[in-house]
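Can anyone check this?
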Amino acid sequence: MQVAPEPVISRETSIGRELVAGLIGAGVALACVLPPLVHLVTGPLGPLIGGFVAARWLRPAAPGPVLIAGTIGLCISGLGGTAAAVVAGLEHPPSWFPSLDALIPILVGVALYGAVLGAIGVKLGSISGRDDVRA
């Protein structure tokens, strides 16, 4: 009886793969906002879920988790910044819309929130995938 060799897990990472993993994580985080009713729970936890999915896909070694989490935070903040720029560029922006002085700290907070939750998700995804073997 012949036994097939076990697949080798590649721990080689690159900045390109880690950025792609971060974009996948950001996509998952944004997709968590879309389903009606469920988004009340998954929306705020989206960066954590996205980081988890990205880490399970890539299995990053250092400094990969930092790049993945940073990409998630910057993508979410960038999307918010783009939406804010569109609203601020309207001829008559809403009266409740924050000024530029207040908007910058809000976007920095969103980036930090996404990056921290993304980092936690990457850590959890890395820990949970240690015993798995991927081809």
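Reply from J.R.: I decoded it. Residues 100-128 form the longest helix (29 residues).
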